[in-house]
Amino acid sequence: MTDSNDTEIKILLDCTSGESQGILNIHNTGSQSAILLIRAESIAI
Fold it and tell me: Would you give the distance in Å from CA 19 to the centre of its chain?
């Protein structure tokens, strides 16, 4: 088994808090580690 130091960034748009938590749980299994950062306000594009 090899260790990987890769980093991935996932950007979640228009997800409910339940959907975000489900995605976090999927990515927090085994040797994977995830954090969820929530913006207090949206940005107009």
Answer: 11
CA dihedral sign of residues 11, 40, 25, 30: positive
Closest CA to 34 of 43, 44, 24: 24
Look up the pTM and report it. 0.66
Per-residue pLDDT reduced to its tens digit, 21-42: 999 999 998 888 999 998 877 6
d(CA 14, CA 19): 10
Residue 4 to residue 31: CA distance in whole angstroms: 10
